[in-house]
Amino acid sequence: MKISLFILSFLFYNAATNAQQGDLAHVSLHNSFGADSSLPVSKKIIPDFSGFDLSHLFQHKVSSKGILGYTKNNKPVDVYFFPGTSNKKALIIGGMHGSELSSIEVAYELIEQLYKSDQPYYNVVIIPSLFPDNAAAAEKGGRKRVENNTGRYSHEHAADPNRQMPILGKPFKENDPIDIKSRIIENENRLLLRLIQSYLPHRIVNLHAIKDISKAGIFADPRTDCNGIAKGFETDSLLAISMAQYIYENGGIVPGNNLTNTPTALYYHDPKIAGAGHLQQRNLKGTNLSHQRGHGVSLGSWAATDVCDEENVHTRPAVRLITVEFPGYKKREEYKTISDQIKHTKLISIYASAIVVFVLREFYVENALENSPSEIISGK
After folding, report:
1. How many helices (H) and strands (E) does the chain have?
2. CATH class entry, domain 5-378
């Protein structure tokens, strides 16, 4: 008898549900994303990326805060590190789109939960707001800022920040920082790509938010080799569905995962999943903006593809990539009633808790074969 994906994921979900029930009552959030000095983490500030010594942090196993670099308006791009019990590594990114202020709330809530919870299995690096200039523009955008998508783009002619990645299967080159459309990659994305190539995370969570709440949920990008041949989607799908089930069972909403009918971890705008050994199509056309500003390789597609570097400097395996689409762009203060603010804050907490429970613990841990660069080069 076949067991449905929904039931199978539910079995995995039940094993971890009780561990985080107490966290769901935690609703403390920050009124200002810039004013995070009250966070109970190390006050050690590292001036630039070159000084953010990850090997030192791994060795000493101390929760720390640093700065990856600075924006055009001289805002710091903050980064937090939480040591894990294993040698596995995770990266969490909030605010890829500055207009999606709720995604930044999830990131800061995750930081607070990690400080209060047991040590995670994965070593965790968190960038709560990758484009703080854009988030600041959204904060000042007024009542129509969601309608106008204020803060999504860095300037009038800028490409979509999530569509500025290198060619699929190719590394980011510091001396030639261009994307698949031959556009110069923005500074904040260069900081991120530099971090990924140095840190080599086993899994990434990209925190987004979505206007159409009916499409909200937890999704996975299929992993492929550097030629786009699918490696299999089962464990990626199970991880995403388990997270969605956890959110749903704890009072949250994940309509895009279609849990009550045919559960799916595929984002509605992405091509169908190819079977292992077959060519996986990628969505290279996000939003239809003038001059193809919304076209290009997304972080999900680039990270979930093996990188084959001819110089063998930045060769890496495909990363397990989870995309969170939180329901709605609004932050807590933008809801008019106290009741709606409380509901929103609880939902933020549930989404963050799902990351702690499933992404950062021993669920569907990447095996040695999946993370062996030599396998990529040899073609085995």
Report:
1. 9, 7
2. alpha beta
